[in-house]
Amino acid sequence: MTALTLSTAGAATLRADALVVGVAKGAKGPVVAPGAEAVDKAFDGKLATVLETLGASGAEGEVTKLPAPAGLKVPVVIAVGLGSVPEKDAAFDAEALRRAAGSASRALAGSKKAGFALPVASVEDAEAVAEGALLGAYAFTAYQGGENKLAAKDKKNGNGPKSPLAEVALLGTKPRDKAFKAAAERAVAVAEEINRARDLINTPPNDLYPESFAAVATAAGKEHGIKVQVLDEKALVKGGFGGLLGVGQGSTHGPRLVKLAYTHPKAEKTLALVGKGITYDSGGISLKPAGHNETMKCDMSGAAAVFATVVAAARLGLQVNVTGWLALAENMPSGNATRPGDVLRMYSGKTVEVLNTDAEGRLVLADALTRACEENPDAIVDVATLTGAMVLALGHRTFGIMANDDAFRTSIHEIAEEVGEASWPMPLPADLRKGMDSPTADIANMGERMGGGLVAGLFLQEFVGEGIAWAHLDIAGPAFHEGAPYGYTPKGGTGSAVRTLVKLAERTAAGDLG
Questions:
Q1: Rounded Cα gap, residues 449 and 472, in angstroms
Q2: CA 369 to each of CA 184, 197, 380, 459, 460: distance values in angstroms, whole numbers, following the listed order
Q3: What's residue 88's pLDDT?
Q4: Fewer CB near the last or first residue (10 Å), C or N of the chain?
Q5: Nearest to 47, CA basis, from 31, 59, 34
């Protein structure tokens, strides 16, 4: 993991491999952002002119590398775009800072140390830069550059994968100030847990399956003082968890239900989080067509987000109880697999007619939701890569929010926007419920095709206890990024929803649940 330091050095005196400064998009060309004054002076006040000559405009995510002039202790200056110049007296948006820092970190792969002299007008700005830099420095290389001779040769020739930026030195801060120290510690904890979630999402399904995921959670629990309980197949059968068992019965890797409980002695509220953890989704007997299977290792992104959030809450010592439920199963076709037309008896006692085995996420979540509600939390949020319909509705960068309480849904939406995660509130239209009526069981796992993401939310709502505020985050779009990296978002697993859930836990601890 990339190290973070709050540096007391000035931009002109810092010794590092590179120095990162900000440049904004002005009405008449690029404008050097605050924090870069010493660098601009080293360029004789002509940094903006030099950047414009090189084609830089200050557009968001734009990265321009220049050789450093005399007067600086670094060999390279990296100017990163922040987007449009803020209106008079306004500061740069935290998300713009976060993305700029991420872009710079990615450009600095292979470097040992870089100073970040981006605009830091507040503690919140410092945290955004730190968080973006740490997230942007992420790389998943566990399966690359092994010890074989060919890999060693590639590494020697500079053809192998580059290591992430090793150290981020944050300039313009007050290293001895408690608020800045706390912001740095929070950025490190949250970024490290997001990157842990990314690692899990990116791990191939032959190595990450329900039992091995549960083992990772157990080890983390011991490290961070989190109580972990794992229900294996025998325990699930004994408990009557028909949804988890039905989805997982076609695989040689049996399902698991993992409970992670972080408790604080002074906590007055309890937040329950439930994550969909399909470690690989073939669709089951309702097999996915070619072209739709290749990235299905990411179908446990919801469970990864929940896991990361509970560990982050423990590391931050939040004054709230946070319980995470990981509903883990592998959805495979075999002679033992659940068939379309089968009826499953869920943990709640309700029966579900399975019309499509590729609508499996809602089945494992239903069991976990019911179990979580038995402990009467003050609020419950489930997170899942649940439906392709949500991707069609909101695209690849925005997750949908559904809830049984309008105020709670609004709170989560506002929190997501505050931390820089694109989201949108979605309805739960009562008229769509009728489409899940079954002549055989209490409910079917499929309803109308149009509005399929909302239908899935309505299905889950059936398994939420009375009087408990509940929200459902469908992160099917932003959980896994298949395009080129941008900002602090890498190719592959993103760790979507972790920042929202951590902030929700903090708000809950402060008594502002919404």
A1: 19
A2: 34, 21, 8, 11, 8
A3: 80
A4: N
A5: 31
Strands 351-353 and 167-170 come out as: unpaired
Q: Element (H or E) spanning 41, and its range?
A: helix 37-42
In this structure, what are the phi and psi dihedrals at residue 321, rounded to the nearest 5 degrees?
-85, 130
Bridge partners, 78 (sequence order): 20, 65
Helix (H, G, I), strand (E, B) or coil at 39: helix
Comparing CA positions, the residue from 161, 172, 112, 165 lying closest to residue 134 is: 165
Do the beta carbons of residue 310 and residue 262 sit within 8 Å?
yes
Give per-residue pLDDT as tens, 130-189.
999 999 999 999 998 765 555 555 555 566 678 999 999 999 998 889 999 999 999 999
Q: Convert 334-368 to b/e letters by CB count within 10 Å (16 or more is b).
A: eeebbeeebbbbbbbebebbbbebbbbbbbbbbbb
- 288 tagged catalytic: yes
Which of 113, 276, 362, 409 is catalytic? The answer is 362
Whether 256 is catalytic: no
Q: Which long-range contacts (C-beta less than 8 Å, at least 24 apart) are formed by 404-410?
A: 404/428, 404/461, 404/464, 404/469, 404/470, 404/471, 405/469, 405/470, 405/471, 407/514, 408/379, 408/469, 408/470, 408/471, 408/513, 408/514, 409/471, 410/514
Q: Which residues pair with 257 in a beta bridge?
A: 231, 327
Structure tokens at 24: 């904004």
**Type and span of the H or E element at 76:** strand 76-84
Pairing of strands 480-481, 29-32: unpaired
Find, among 47, 44, 54, the residue nearest to 33 by Cα.
47
CB-based contact 307:275 (threshold 8 Å): yes
**Which residue in 288, 345, 397, 491 is the catalytic one?**
288
Residue 129's CB is within 10 A of a number of other CB atoms, namely: 34
Q: Strand 343-345's sheet: what is its strand order?
A: 343-345, 351-353, 443-444
Q: What is the pLDDT of residues 252-273, one digit of tens each?
A: 999 999 999 999 999 999 999 9
Q: Phi/psi of residue 506, each to 5°? A: -65, -40
Determine the 3-state secondary structure of 227 from DSSP: strand
**Mean pLDDT of the residues in the chain:** 95
